[in-house]
Amino acid sequence: MATDSAGTRTEAGLEGIRDGIAQGRFPAHVFNDREIFDTEQRRVFSKAWCFLAHESEIPNRGDYVTRYIADNNLIVARAESGEIHASLNMCRHRGNMMCKSEMGNASHFRCSYHGWVYKNSGELVGVPYMKEGYGGRIDKRDWGLVKVRTDTYAGLVFGTLDPDAPTLEEYLGGFQFYLDLYLKQGSSGSEVHGPPDHWVTETDWKIAAENFSGDGYHTPVAHQFGFNLGYFASSGSTHSQGWAASIPGKGHGIGLGHTPGFPPFAGFPEELAEEMRSSLSPEQVEVFSQTRTAVGTVFPNLSFLMQPFSIVPGEAGVRFVTMRLYHPIGPGRTEMYSWCLVPKDASDEYKQEAYRAYTLAFAQAGTFEQDDLENWARVTRSAGSTMARNIEFPYVMGMDSTPDPDFPGPGHVVTPYVNDSNFRNLWSRWSEYMTGRV
């Protein structure tokens, strides 16, 4: 589709989907559909705040990574001033890709076609044959790389293609309360531990985003061996306990699993737990100290998981955090990025143990990651079948739940942790974008 006007059938279908979500119904075909994918590119990913990088990936002047928003490849670079800039990775002369590497360090980028040169902040500074060829008709100030609006929260760098989008603070809408568990591990915060795992999977991005917005329902089945062998600090009988928290109207959601008798901040080194008690708000300490598992999604496609994991079954676990980005590259196809986040202040020994737990569990070849990817690929394949065009899925779990009046955190918070309320909020927000209401 060349314009922002989707076909009549699609427009009517999207309105029907929006109505169905309120009734706890969501169609199967949206998880593998060319028209849905094309519309998402224009109406969701071209308007939302999308995650680009963690600041610790580019700590030094000149450091850069390349990332995507929709189908636009961007250079995210720390300039010589120390500021972070995001620019379209496309020469303004004839459109060649400026930077071919996914990460590196460079003060300037030179086009390999005709040789135009840009600072890493995007300004055009060099044009071959400027005097002989252009005779003064090119003002370099007019031909810099195309800038993308950026903002940050606690080390996360986001970008949006929509100049009229709300501020990032407004967009997150209070979800920062929960993000702090992942991003403020200790008084100095969190950092990435090495480059991301990066691969392509035959999975629709929405399946992964939904799963990480709090799908505790699948864990005792898809990852049953984790309970049986003692990798988890919970059991199948208690795994559903905890809270499902979402920010109404924003799409963000998190599942907070709780195990009775679970020691406060278990899995963190004691000195790190003490730092968190002093640096987080009293309300955050009350929630996070009793949280076993925290699995959440920032709308549309950035997710986190924190989990204590016993590398030796039956022994005390170590906390690891995976941060992951689901970049859609086609209907039913996703480019996955997965990082391990560790506390900056932790010892090297703890960071290595946390990274080891992450690698064994949820890195690209992690055992639990494979459990999920096998299921997600099959869901995607089924959703693309002809009969799936007329099939809906039930999202009615917890339809009658009432908010927990004693929970100290923001948003719509219900019990138990196993609940569809976060998914209804996620798809409601998605439908607002897809129908052009945002």
From TrEMBL:
Keyword Oxidoreductase found: yes
PROSITE patterns, sorted: RIESKE, RING_HYDROXYL_ALPHA
Gene Ontology MF term list: 2 iron, 2 sulfur cluster binding; benzene 1,2-dioxygenase activity; iron ion binding; monooxygenase activity
Keywords for this protein: 2Fe-2S, Aromatic hydrocarbons catabolism, Dioxygenase, Iron, Iron-sulfur, Metal-binding, NAD, Oxidoreductase
InterPro entries given in the database record: ARHD_Rieske_2Fe_2S, RHO_NdoB-like_C, Rieske_2Fe-2S, Rieske_2Fe-2S_sf, Ring_hydroxy_dOase_asu_C_dom, Rng_hydr_dOase-A
Domain Rieske: start-end pairs: 49-159
EC number(s) given by UniProt: 1.14.12.3
Enzyme class, UniProt record, top EC level: oxidoreductase
Claim: Disulfide bond is one of the keywords in the record: no
Record PANTHER family: 3-PHENYLPROPIONATE_CINNAMIC ACID DIOXYGENASE SUBUNIT ALPHA, CHOLINE MONOOXYGENASE, CHLOROPLASTIC
Recorded family membership: Belongs to the bacterial ring-hydroxylating dioxygenase alpha subunit family.
Record protein name field: Benzene 1,2-dioxygenase subunit alpha
Organism whose genome encodes this protein: Streptomonospora litoralis
